Amino acid sequence: MIETIDLWFSYGDREVLKGVNFKAVREKVTVLMGKNGAGKTTLLMHLNGLLKPKKGEVRFDGKKIDYSKKSLLELRKKVSIVFQNPDEQIVAPTVWQEVAFGPANAGMGFEKIGEALKLVGLEGYERRLCSQLSGGEKKKLSIADAIAMDPEFIVLDEPTAGLDQPGFDAIVKLIKKLRNDGKGVIIATHDFDLAKKVGDRFYYLDGGRIVYEGDQLNFELARKIGIRTYGFGELVISNENGKSGDLIFVLNEDSPKEIFDRVLNAILKASEGHRVILNFKNNCLEKIKELINSEGKK
Ligand SMILES: Nc1ncnc2c1ncn2[C@@H]1O[C@H](COP(=O)(O)OP(=O)(O)OP(=O)(O)O)[C@@H](O)[C@H]1O
Ligand SMILES: [Mg+2]
Questions:
Q1: CB of 298 within 8 A of CB of 216?
Q2: Which of 17, 28, 190, 227 is most buried, with most CB under 10 Å away?
Q3: pLDDT tens, 74-102?
Q4: How many domains does the chain contain in total?
């Protein structure tokens, strides 16, 4: 288990984390959500000691990190971070050299390299130049870097940013495989679809504080993560007299299931920045809530 206890952090006098209690365990996918600038990346960087709390502590399996060279080395063997921007991470000229870099530095063997490249779908890319990879391929390579270290926890910062649908599907599959292999996976993401597909536990960070923690990605959470309350998406549920032009869906209780499915999709997409306006009649709101709840449990 990796956890932060009453963690405070500031860059200069800009306070970014204000007493964060966060916990992630093996064999589970822990999802951290929150709007831009909420402090997600800053929190993740504490999980392998890249940043040191101003106050509070980070513990690994109950043991407090003391920031000595030895304890940092140990921690980094167990917790690998994949950065939001692969260009910040990729250092070597070729794909094989890149994935070998971490294990070589840690005095480990190279057995995991082939497997790591295969897992992310970069088999056969060994001799390619990193600088000539596409954005999505670089993303996959940066994930292979982490897997090659065979850590107990893998931290992924925005793993699906910039990926197309097959790339997205591959990441979903990969995350599930890592979890099934017993790894703890921690993800910071804006991607509601990804969160829904792989998340076991959810945190929502707002203004440096955890404002939601739970194992359901449900309607309440959707509201909390911004569909209505915050900036990066909006769900407006109007009554029957909703302004014309605003109207996207008109529903009543016996609307066909496909319409409800489309609504549900639109709501989930809302977290990606769409504005969704529903015009509902009678008990539709209850039906929509039910749908979202059952979707959240899948
Ligand atoms: N090195 C830095 N120096 C000063 N301020 C920083 C630094 N890195 C981040 N910040 C600020 O700290 C706050 C939190 O940033 P952070 O990158 O943790 O947010 P985030 O939740 O990951 O955002 P995003 O969704 O955009 O990735 C932001 O206001 C950011 O401008
Ligand atoms: Mg970030």
A1: no
A2: 17
A3: 899 999 999 988 998 899 999 999 999 99
A4: 2
